[in-house]
Amino acid sequence: MSPSIIEFHNVVKSFGPQRVLDNVTISFEAGRTTVIAGGSGQGKSVTLKLILGLLAPDAGEILVNGQDITKMKLRELNRIREKFGVLFQGAALLDSMTVFENVALPLRERTKFKPPEIAQRVRKMLTQFNLEEHEAKFPAQLSGGMKKRVGLARALMLQPEIMLFDEPTTGLDPQITMEIYRLFFNSQKQFGYTSIIVSHDIPKVFNLADQVVLLNKGKMVTFASPEEIPLSTEPQIVSFAVETMGHIYSSSKMEHNI
Amino acid sequence: MISFVTKLGDSFLYFIRDQGRMGMFLLSALLGAFSRPFRFREVVRQISIIGANSFAVIFFTAIFTGMVLGLQGYYTLRKFGSEGMLGSAVALSLIRELGPVLTALMVTGRAGSAMCAEIGIMRNSEQIDALECMAVNPFRYLITPKFLATIISVPILTQFFNVIGIAGGYVAGVVLLGVNPGAFYNGIEQSVVNEDINLGIVKSFVFALLVVWICTGKGYFVHILRNAGFGAEGVSRATTQAVVLSSISVLIWDYLITAVML
Questions:
Q1: What ipTM describes this predicted complex?
Q2: Which of B27, B42, B48, B133 best probes binding to A when mutated, by most A CB atoms within 10 angstroms?
Q3: Exposed (0-12), middle (13-18) or buried (19+): which is A92, by Cβ within 10 Å?
């Protein structure tokens, strides 16, 4: 078992009367891929924002590399954030900047590289993601899949230890979805990052998962593999799995085709 | 009754939290001006957007305001046989009151609304979250350059407004209605003193700060703005609120500064 890189200890988060996370204790292992699954509005994206310190929990501790980020000042938190790369649901590219400028942004802001060095690194990354012909385009001129590729290229520029993916394939057609998964697979192999993926794309996304976390009514349950979910003896989990995801791998043929 | 009291308490708590948020927002934006890296090029770009691009609207507002002042002033002063005081009346009205106030209102309408919408859209499309995740301080990167640019631009635009407004008053009073040009200039020279100009400059700085603070703040907090809705509707309501609140604040502070400095 790998050491934990992120740990939640008794984390509580509410929005008004709705308790999104209810006393959650969970750990994410270094170097592995965790898929967080659950119905809409169950707090999957909130979990990512808590990990990044964009939201503060109402109670509990969130440890990143053993340091509690809930008690950190902004400067310390920014040092922790440098370890992260994030691919947002809508890619979150700065729409007044070109593709090149978006990908160069982390290097310009977080490193002391000179402009020629930045340009060389950005072009190398753009080539890797087949975006070299689009470097002068603005986000509004790109397709959904291209935006995601630019977002991923930008997130990987500083070679993060941990990558967070918020619904990376939402709104993409099956072909582009597979392309994004391939990029994910190859980039993880190259950079060796720990990844946490929040996704609705079930069961396809389970192919990438080392562990699965189910989020339901404020509680999180961890499974060592997706196949363990229907085998759970807890009726609530089985019914949740069927309700939200249907019967996973209803046949061996389906599993083979994914 | 209990429901009414609950709503009242809720509104009061929201108001207190909002004041705290906006106070911290102002502090962070101002502190950003003293932190490295200095974004000189971005400040210049924002001066071009907020300041230079507002020249046309300021020009037309100023020239017609000055002409109306010249016209109204002429017919009022003629009743007392004091047409020669027209230059003084036009210049003092513009330098002490109308110049700073109308410039601030025009900048609110033209640039303030755009700043609010731009930042609101960036908030809703997670662009600000993305900056924070890249450990880029959104205040230093986005907000502080707009603060500096507005605080630099509005006083300059105000002086431009005053000059064009006085020229408008000259056209209406001297060219169209036949007031003696020497009397017009002499009236300005005799009545306008340094205190009047200082009052106008102080006002323009305060109004600039109010406008940029409210407009960028409303955009930045669009996601937690009460009754603002989500998405495009939220940005639209935040922009409306920003423009209305900025305009009212400018008028309230105009009275307060005048009362204190006169």
A1: 0.81
A2: B133
A3: buried
